Structure formats: C-alpha cells, structure tokens
Amino acid sequence: MFRYLVPALVLAPSLVVSPLRAAAGQPANISLSADRQQCLGVDGYAAAFGGRRTFFLKPAELTAIKASLDRDPAVKAAYAELIRRADAALGHRPGSVMDKTTIPLSGDRHDYISLAPYWWPDPSKPDGLPYLRKDGEFNPKRDTQSFDRIAIGRMSDDVTALSLAYYYSGEVRYADKAAQMIRTWFLDPATAMNPNARFAQAVPGREDGRAEGVLDTSAFQPVIDAIGLIEPSGKLTKSEQGQLEQWFGRYVDWMLKSPTGRQEEAAKNNHGIWFDSQITQYALFARRPDIARAVVAAFPKKRIAAQFDPSGKLPAELTRTRSFHYSIFALSPAFDVAEMAGCLGVDLWSYRDDQGRGLRKATDFLAGFRGHADQWPYKELRWEPVELDALLVRADWAWGPGAYPHGPAPYPLALQYRIRATDR
Q1: For the whole model, what pTM was predicted?
Q2: How confident is the model at residue 393 (pLDDT cuts 50, 70, 90)?
Q3: Is the separation of the CB atoms in 295 and 336 below 8 Å?
Q4: How far apart are CA 14 and CA 37, in angstroms?
Q5: pLDDT digits (tens, 9 = 90+) for 276-301
Q6: DSSP for 160-182?
Q7: What is the tally of structural domains in the chain?
Q8: Residue 279: CB partners within 8 Å, gap ≥ 6?
Q9: Is 218 a domain residue?
Q10: Is residue 11, in this structure, part of any structural domain at all?
Q11: Which of 93, 291, 340, 367 supports an S-S bond with 280, CB 3.0-4.6 Å?
Q12: Residue 270 domain-assigned?
C-alpha cells in the first residue's frame, strides 16, 4: 500500500507512554519526560520543530538522525536510498486524477476511481461480469493507467522522499518539486482531485465503488507530514497551506456524512481502524480537533473492545488467507490513532480494558511469532517478516528501546526513528 505495509511507508510514532499504566478501561493523560517534545493538538510539533507542522515525524528523532548521517552506517545507507528516490522523483511529472483512462460514472474525471484488489473476471461469462472474489490474490489490472491507484501511490511516495530529502540535505529543489506535486494533486483547478472516494475500489458488475475504497486515501497521511516538513522552504504559500486545510476539511465532511464513509466507519475489521487513523489526522490538520477527540474517546470501546480479544488476537483478521499480514495491517493504524491521541493529551499506548485488551497485548501476540512463521496456526499465503519488523520498530518507540527485538529498520523508518544500540 502507500505507507510501509501497503506501501510505501510507515511514519514514526510520536509519544512515549506515561510511566504509569492506565487503569483498566480508562486511558491515561500523557506524561512526557523532559527531553521529549510534545505534539500539541492541531499545531502538531510545529512549536518544537522550527514551524514544521508534523503529526507523526518528531523533531527529537529527526534532529538526532540528521546529526548521525556521517557516522551511522545504517543511517548513511538509508540516506543514500532516500536521495536515489528523491532524485528520481525530480524527474517525474506530477501525477493527478486526470491521468486515468477510465471515466467515473459521475462523468467527472476529477473523481478518484480504483479497482478492488481481490476481484477478478468470471471466466465462465463472456464479458467476465460480475467479477468474482479471490481473497489475497491481486488483480494486476488495478495497477494500470485505467485507474488512479498508481498515481496516488506514486504521488505519496515521491512527496515523502522529496520532503525528507529537503530536510536532510537542505536542498530547496526537493521542496520545490514536492510542493509542485502537492499543488497538482490537491489545489490546481485543472487537475485537483475532488474530496471524495465515492468510486474507489469498484467491482465491475457489482459495485460502482465500495466503502473499503476509503482505505486508498491513507496515501494522504504521509503527505500531510511532508507539507509540514517543507514549510521552511516557503514553496507552499500560507494561502496554499490554508487551501490544503480546507480540502482536507471537505474530505473529513465526506467521510463523516456520505453513505460510503459511514459504512467504512462502521466496519468491524481493519477498515474501521484505518478510517479512524485517517480521520483523526485529517481533522487535526484541518483544525477541527473536536472530531479527532471524539474518535479517540470512542476508540477503546468501539475498536479495542470490539475487535481485539484478551489474548491479543484480532479475530476478524484471522479468517483471511493472509491472516498474519492483516493482523499487522489492523494494528498499524491502531498505532496511528494512539499517535494522534497523544497529540490530544490521551495515552492509548498503555490503555487496557478490564479483560486486558489493548495495543500492548496485541503487539505481544504478534511479536511472539517473529522468527517462528512455522508456528503461526492460521492461513498465510505470503509471509513477509519485514512487515512485523516495521511494526516492532514503532513499538520500541512506544514502549521503550529494547522492548521488542527486531531487524534493521527498512527505508524510510531508519530516517524517522533513532535505532538505539539496544534495538540492533
């Protein structure tokens, strides 16, 4: 996907938990050690990060990593990979929803459209309709010029690389290109995406778009931090930054009010958690903290109690043909919500209910299978150890260095997290 698991990238978490465990069923207020800068509501880390309004990327982490570029081999290698990607992105034409060849049923090319990943033509039908589901088997047609998925993913990846390259190198050309790509996708009237996902993850012969398609727009989460990271360059004007906040405010409204958005919010699997992950960050970016607070307040009962079991399993994900992947894929956005909760002064990292359900228990459960794929008792078509390591890098931030053994941080995590000696 577009961040690390789907994607592209998993952004760094923001806060160390309070040293005091939250009482069962009651999230605690955040208590930060003196050397940690705090994410402050809708302003994110701007006050501690030279005006850079990020929500996941933390000044203490990035500043320390930047200082270690010349002496840490792992960071040096990650930086070389970053510059390779950023230099390639400099040569990319800014993508937009206007690039696709399929026109949404609205007739408006500015509407985003994609194909559901696990649906295939019915070989017994001359026209292949309606499509049939093959869980865990990707239809390659979804990643073609016919739809917007390739463009949204490339934009997210390129903007991420360019913004990080600007921060670490100081070369303004990277910020300039990132701003150009952001402007093209969100602001230019000739190319901007309409703020909805009405036609995302369509299934030919069945549905013109699905609630599950809201997941596609998680590609925007790293873009928001990129906007903050390039702020000192001035390549996005204050007016443009305000317009971006307005765009995300309209998208938040669509998520909350449209039938598609409401159906995705009601999902009882990873999709519901991804909905919460997106809307909390987008609402904070759009300067609508009440929406983010409401999602965070509901999260223990609505998601943890309903979707986690006391052993740490996420039962809805265990029925999938890629059950280990989807367990990680559901826990990752729960980490995101804990990050945004921290920006609002709420500690979900140490929350547990009266039966022991919580993020830590779920992390313990998955971490127990690191290096023991043969002991996983559920179906998994493709075991990918790097996905678990990426999650555990984040967990080490949340619960302290050395909390979980893990492998080397993959790109771009090595440029978003300090990897302490106890982690290696």
Answers
A1: 0.92
A2: very high
A3: no
A4: 9
A5: 999 999 999 999 999 999 999 999 99
A6: HHHHHHHHHH--HHHHHHHHHHH
A7: 1
A8: 252, 255, 256, 291, 292, 295
A9: yes
A10: no
A11: 340
A12: yes
Specify whether the backbone of 104 is left (phi greater than 0), alpha (psi in -120 to 50) or beta.
beta
Model confidence at 26, pLDDT cuts 50, 70, 90, reads low
* Amino acid identity for residue 92 in this structure: H
pLDDT tens readout for residues 370-384: 999 999 999 999 999
- Kindly state the helix (H) or strand (E) to which residue 306 belongs, with its residue range: helix 305-307
* Tokens 């190319």, located at residue: 191
Tokens representing 41 are: 């509501």
Q: Print the SS3 string covering 206-264.
A: CECCCHHHHHHHHHHHHHHHHHHHCHHHCCCCHHHHHHHHHHHHHHHHHHHHCHHHHHH
Helix (H) or strand (E) holding 270: helix 270-285
Domain that holds residue 36: 28-423
Q: Which of 140, 146, 97 is nearest to 121 (CA)?
A: 140
Distances (CA, A) of 275 to 57, 114, 359: 20, 18, 17
Distance CA 388, CA 393 (A): 9
Q: Is the pLDDT of residue 64 over 90?
A: yes
Q: Which helix (H) or strand (E) holds 143?
A: none
CATH no. for residue 201?
Answer: 1.50.10.100
User: Is beta strand 113-115 parallel, antiparallel or unpaired with respect to 199-202?
Assistant: parallel
CB 191 within 8 A of CB 258: no
Q: For residue 170, is it left (φ>0), alpha (ψ between -120 and 50) or beta?
A: left
**From residue 94, how far is each of 2, 154, 164, 173, 413 by CA, in Å?**
17, 9, 18, 15, 25
Q: pLDDT category, 419, cuts 50, 70, 90?
A: confident
Dump pLDDT digits (tens) for 249-283.
999 999 999 999 999 999 999 999 999 999 999 99
Give how far the C-alpha of residue 220 lies from the chain's centroid of Cα atoms, to the nearest Å.
8
H-state helical runs in 73-189: 73-90, 149-169, 172-182
Question: Could you tell me the two tokens for 122?
Answer: 């019915």
In a domain, 20, yes or no: no
* pLDDT tens digit sequence for 169-226: 999 999 999 999 999 999 999 999 999 999 999 998 999 999 999 999 999 999 999 9
Whole-number mean pLDDT of the chain? 91
238-257 and 220-229 helices, crossing angle to 10°:
160
- How far is 119 from 138, CA to CA, in rounded Å? 8
Contacts of 248 (CB under 8 A, 6+ apart): 195, 220, 224, 282, 285, 286
Find the radius of gyration of the CA atoms of the chain: 21
